[in-house]
Design brief:
homodimer; 343 residues; 434 Repressor (Amino-terminal Domain); Rossmann fold; 6-stranded parallel sheet; 6-stranded mixed sheet; 13 helices; elongated; DNA-binding
DNA sequence: AATAAAAATTAAAACGTTTCAATAAATGGC
DNA sequence: GCCATTTATTGAAACGTTTTAATTTTTATT
């Protein structure tokens, strides 16, 4: 299938390339009849002007940045993207988003795609599995392509905007301990997620700074997929009798927490009377749940905004500028899914 | 600020453009010392090879399509995008998404952006306000750029994948009537949305085919923003005494339904005992609500999939192909937020 | 030290448009 | 019908890379 170019169209229409170009760009210098004829030929040939070539001459004037998130359907990420979008818009940039769906290969593909298509820079929520290769990030660095990570990636110096997961969980657990909870459990996330490990660590640390003592049975592997979390929660409780129940569950994230609450409802366990539930992320849909979720709130919009800020500063600077690393504070928000025991 | 090109780098590094190119493309034909030196110069100059020019020569080999949705934070749209992504991936295409956030101007900007950046085609959920201009769509047609709309747009012949909103609501209302409901009300969406009018129409039509009679007070303008819907619902009930309450509310969409349920909880109105609630869309978070929402389920993944299918078929066809219009069926799903009265 | 082979570099053509100055064609005024 | 405008069209240069074949430099072999 031969590639068809403006030249081809010109030849067949019997005019010069310049005239075709004028038609494509809706210049009003073309005689209507000529125009119509050209249009017809274009249609016949199914001619699609190559955007690439069009932009080469003048350089596209539209400014845009990309953001690669991990999951298009998890509100946390779309909120971050929205934060980025708001800031970017104020600076005249469009934002386009793509989701890696937790697939490292796909992330690489997307980063290449963006950097190659005259998108001025990218914000990346990187998939960091154990020792995942990061040559694609090095490649971006090599061509001085601006990017900002939403998570630290070992082995590379880059702009990062992140939150301190460890500290966040620690705060939550400490709160529980101070509220008189003694049987606290962590429902851990999917083993493949880098956050899972961090959160387990934060959970464990909280104990070392308290009078309670940590033991491994306090960590239960649950995942974050809703259906799976629901099932595993049911299972977890099946093997326990009432007095073995924890008094509080610190969940991996809000989505998991929602699943846990669904399961507990089925088991007739009352929240927060019987068990306190703590989420993580603070997604919109957990906030409007009938039992609004106590959670660790990550400043999603701010994450996006700050990342976009750094990114655009880099894009617009003619010379290389200092790498930045900002760690944002989370806020522990007590709502109705948790309860204080010692009063 | 002078634009800096590969030529500039070559001159300063004292080598030819070809060598610079080889470095950029990680060819292993460059002597390490030369390479390092060039890298240094590149960094000094903050040289960013223009993707546009790079792609011109060989034509980028990565295939990608775009999807422009209306709201990045409404799960309905991200589900559609996910459906598109799944199909596209199977065909070797990446998907990038952008949100117009219900801003017609922004939609235009994005469609231009995509078509200009060598994205092979777009799926567009168009903003159709009364008589909105659609020159941007005509422009796409002119350049034979493949696109698929997720909603009919008056005045243009184009590929469309949509659902029949009117029929969908009608089905729901009929179900309620057959279940013995007599006091049915529609909580309408934001006046600016094209769906609002359609759904009102569907609601009204259902009555003409029944023994009940429609009157205007059955349509209540509520919106779809959560906070606003919550507030307006409270207000609606404030002026009514118990026996004036409707027995069923047909909501504009699931998000609104969620807000309505929150308000009713506050008012101590039981669902479904006192009032049945019907949603629309079937978003994930309404399904996992403690009172799972009865709703009109749109086949979100399928919408995306079919749109991507048509799009890619058009992209890959060397010649113009017949315009398609597919209307997908919705499914009325009875869960626990509604109840049958007449038994 | 000469030669052959291998490695590194260069120079020019190519990619497919847009732009713009130059030219040609059409129109209007007389 | 002729000249002066105005309108329409053309042709060549330009955009910033990549790609190759050709050349130069380096290395290895004798």
């Amino acid at each position: 299938m031969k590639k068809i170019t403006i030249e081809e169209v010109a030849k067949i229409a019997g005019v010069s390339k310049g005239t075709i170009s004028a038609v494509i760009n809706a210049k009003n210098t073309v005689k209507p009849e000529t125009r119509d004829h050209i249009l017809e030929v274009m249609k016949d040939l199914n001619f699609r002007p190559k955007g690439v070539a069009r932009n080469l001459k003048n350089g596209a004037k539209d400014k845009s940045i990309g953001i690669i998130i991990k999951d298009l359907n998890y509100p946390f990420y779309t909120s971050v993207a929205t934060g980025a979008r708001e800031y970017a818009k104020s600076k005249g940039y469009s934002v386009i988003v793509a989701s890696s769906e937790n697939d490292h290969e796909y992330e690489k593909k997307l980063s290449h795609l963006f950097s190659t298509k005259d998108i001025k820079g990218i914000i990346i929520a990187p998939i960091v599995e154990g020792a995942s290769e990061i040559e694609h990030l090095f490649k971006l660095k090599m061509i001085n392509y601006p990017f900002v990570l939403l998570e630290d990636v070992k082995g590379i110096q880059a702009n990062v905007v992140a939150i301190d997961n460890i500290r966040a969980i620690k705060k939550a657990v400490k709160y529980l301990i101070e509220s008189g909870h003694t049987k606290i459990v962590h429902f851990a996330g999917p083993p493949s997620s880098s956050h899972t490990q961090e959160r387990i660590e934060g959970f464990r640390h909280a104990f070392s700074e308290s009078t309670l003592v940590f033991n491994k049975s306090m960590i239960v592997s649950i995942g974050s997929d809703h259906e799976e979390s629901y099932r595993k929660t049911l299972e977890y409780f099946k093997h326990k009798n009432r007095k073995e129940y924890p008094t509080a569950i610190v969940c991996f994230n809000d989505l998991q927490a929602l699943a846990v609450m669904t399961a507990l409802k089925e088991l007739n366990i009352k929240i927060p009377e019987d068990i306190s539930i703590i989420g993580n992320d603070d997604i919109f849909y957990a906030k409007i749940y009938p039992v609004p979720l106590t959670t660790i709130s990550a400043p999603q919009h701010e994450i996006g905004r700050r990342a976009a800020e750094i990114l655009i500063r880099n894009i617009e600077s003619p010379k290389f500028i200092q790498i930045e690393r900002v760690v944002l504070e989370t806020e522990f928000i007590v709502r109705e899914s948790s309860k204080v025991l010692n009063r």
